Amino acid sequence: MVVRLDLDGNEIKAIKICMIGGGGFIGSHLCETLMWETNHTVLAIDVYSDKIDHLLQEDTPWANRISFYQANITLDPRVNDFIKDCDLTINLAAICTPADYNTRPLDTIYSNFVDAIPVVKCCSENKKRLMHFSTCEVYGKTLGSYLPADDPRRNEPEFYVLKEDDSPCLYGSIEKQRWSYACAKQLIERLIYGEGAENDLKFTVVRPFNWIGPRMDFIPGVDGPSDGVPRVLACFSTNLLRREPMKLVDGGKSQRTFLYIKDAIKAVMLMIDNPGRANGHIFNVGNPTNEASVKELADVMTEVYSKVTGLPKLPQPTVEVSSLEFYGVGYDDSDRRIPDMNLIQKQLGWNPETSLNDLLEVTLDYQHKTYADSIAQSMNSSKAA
Ligand code: NAD
Ligand code: UDP
Fold first, then answer.
1. Which residue of 74, 144, 171, 290 could cross-link 154, Cys pair, CB 3.0 to 4.6 Å?
2. Which are the catalytic amino acids?
3. Running DSSP on this structure, what letter comes out for residue 60?
4. Mutate-to-test residue for ligand 2 from 162, 249, 323, highest number of ligand atoms within 8 A of CB
5. How far apart are CA 14 and CA 97, in angstroms?
6. ipTM above 0.95 for this complex
């Protein structure tokens, strides 16, 4: 393999990475890049491995650089030994599907805060570098959302652009249990930041802004529970595959910025390979130019799905549902999420590249090729029953 250089022109030395939650959506893409493009070694820890099984085969050139350890980190004392044995720990493990935040708030808080504490402490006590995955949701709602609907200040960036070292974290009341996830992630960020300040923990915190792409979540009834509710990409993909209308929660007015997973992984790789520039920072990682309301996302997905499959659009591609009906009591929403990109540009020179249209073409092509047959079979067998 050619010598890889960091942003300051120094040779990047191979390191050993302990990747907790390495079998998930982001973990699977990160493992691919680490195996295909670097000499780093990965120990992936997760409850599941199906999304990385293709990397774990014995006859690959990287077979001696990746291993999988099946474990629930809350129940397995060996995790500490693995962290001590590695140069860098990347913690991706979390419950991170909004349908769980208000219906399983305890699991959500334990998973995102309590279960992450021993990982932070082990890194801090053993002077190991930690890269922790937080979320853009720590910002909560925008300042502008508290202004009257016709207030012109809503259009001023300081009322909606989310900046790591400046924007406040604005959540709803405790009854709005949606915010259990954001609050747990905020507290683990504060713990990490405190360990950095008081005990010199070398850390990087990543705040992903709606990273999407192949292998995200699951398709209910095919590779996940039939009553499960994944994140919006997989919900809408399921609807398209089943030829049923996509459900717009509360009209689909909320806005998101969508980042292609492959662009996101480039940002994570820069953080891994440039500790001097990434340590001590909390980074927004998103694509401010790919903003769409959920309704607009549904419209683009309708067009793109029709283009990649050749299937006609449904006469009624979307229906509106209330959040109470869709998520139950205690749901609330982030109104808008535009990341400020100055810090990541300055420290790492990273910029996203892929448009929403292009990333959806790749992703929906993948969804169709991966799931269309299984969906057709499951729909036929339920018709026959
Ligand atoms: P994911 O659910 O696909 O991955 C999380 C992985 O962690 C899963 O494979 C799960 O099995 C594993 N895990 C959970 N608890 C575990 C435990 N106790 N022991 C072992 N493994 C455990 O989600 P993802 O999209 O890959 O997200 C990864 C991280 O990034 C999470 O911390 C999430 O909060 C954060 N994040 C992601 C996005 C995004 O856009 N995808 C947005 C915001 C935040
Ligand atoms: N959403 C929707 N229909 C669905 C699933 C989600 O309208 O079938 C909306 C949800 O209410 C939110 C947005 O899509 O406004 C994004 O939801 P996602 O689950 O991806 O997570 P979030 O961005 O809120 O963390």
1. 144
2. 181
3. S
4. 249
5. 34
6. yes
